[in-house]
Amino acid sequence: MTRLDRRTLLAGAAATASLAATARAADPVYSPDISLKGKSVLITGCSSGFGRLAAELLARQGAKVFATMRGVPRPEADQLIALAQSEKLDLHVIGIDVTELPQVNAGVKEAERINGGPIDVLVNNAGIGITSPVEVQDMTATRLIFDTNVFGPHRLARAVLPGMRKAKSGLIIQISSQLGRVITPYSGHYSATKFALEAMSEQLAYELVPHGIDVSIIEPGGYPTKVWVNRNAYSAALRERSLAVHSAGYPAQVARMGEEDGSGRTNDPMDVARAISGLIAQPPGTRPLRLPVSPGNKPQLPINTMTAQVQTDWLGASPLVGPLVRAVHQR
């Protein structure tokens, strides 16, 4: 096994960063001619944004789509149902709040009943952000964001995996973020939750190799979805209840909590929907563990490359887990 010291890692990181700066990132494997007929896909967080766009795109490509969202019935659910009826899409709306285990289990069971068997693809898209200095984040905000962004995907994965393992096939797509690998100040625990999601997903990818199930993590950059609307509500509520003993240390940042207007982002959110479609269409066992999606800067690229190399150098020769690690990173 290769011995790694700090100097070796730093030298490797520098070389990787230089390569990533000049190399083009892997683009989503997408074609408008993709047919997903025969595939069943369950997507969380379909009231708007990436989830809504992916539900429409995949259904139009022939997939049987289970578009889930919390708070059903709601206008967004009615709109999707009407769209499915008008276009004769195989699209079904199911109410699932990812923070509620009974809803998760019941929703997946209903999807499997309609599908007549296990779900082929799970897209864990539902997520929230709460913006503030870390010290200002109280336990209410901390529990909510971890419950949604980390425990939610965990609940959904546990619900679909028995069926996928029985079928000896499947795909779990986790919607992370650039901020799941790099960090910006004053973004609350968003990076902490996405870092956790990335780690959990990578471990799942290793452990599911023997079962023929792939895990891919999509890392979007900044996109003009409505996620900022909910983020404003959560952040403003946190600001209102924050204790002065904490918030007094960050007056400028606290004053901006809940004030984001969502402007300044021009990327097309369909990039992420297309990336999801492309991943589903790829042959099993060839899908990348991580797929950065953004037409702009991708600061996580050298990190992704280096950590894959470290994992392979560290564990690749292990007789117990080496085959799992190599299967994920040497695609």
Write out the strand line-up for the largest beta sheet, numbering strands in chain order.
Answer: 3-2-1-4-5-6-7
Number of domain units: 2
Which series of helices and strands comes N to C?
HEHEHEHEHEHEHHHHEHH
- Cα-based radius of gyration, to the nearest Å: 20 Å
Tertiary shape: globular
What's this entry about, in short?
The protein is an alpha/beta fold.
Structural notes for this entry:
- The protein is α/β, with parallel strands linked by helices and 331 residues long.
- The protein folds into 2 domains: 1-25 and 302-320, no CATH class; 27-297, Rossmann fold, CATH 3.40.50.
- It has helices at residues 6-22, 49-60, 75-87, 101-115, 139-167, 190-207, 227-241, 244-247, 251-256, 270-281, 301-315, 322-329, and strands at 40-43, 64-69, 91-95, 121-124, 170-175, 213-220, 290-293.
- The chain has a 7-stranded parallel sheet with strand order 3-2-1-4-5-6-7, with helices on both faces.
- The longest helix is centred in the middle third of the chain and has 29 residues, at 139-167.
Name the features.
alpha/beta, Rossmann fold, 7-stranded parallel sheet, 2 domains, 7 strands, 331 residues
Please write out the topology.
Layout lengths: L5 H17 L17 E4 L5 H12 L3 E6 L5 H13 L3 E5 L5 H15 L5 E4 L14 H29 L2 E6 L14 H18 L5 E8 L6 H15 L2 H4 L3 H6 L13 H12 L8 E4 L7 H15 L6 H8 L2
Parallel strand pairs: 1-2, 1-4, 2-3, 4-5, 5-6, 6-7
Helix pairs in contact: 1-11, 2-10, 4-5, 5-6, 11-12
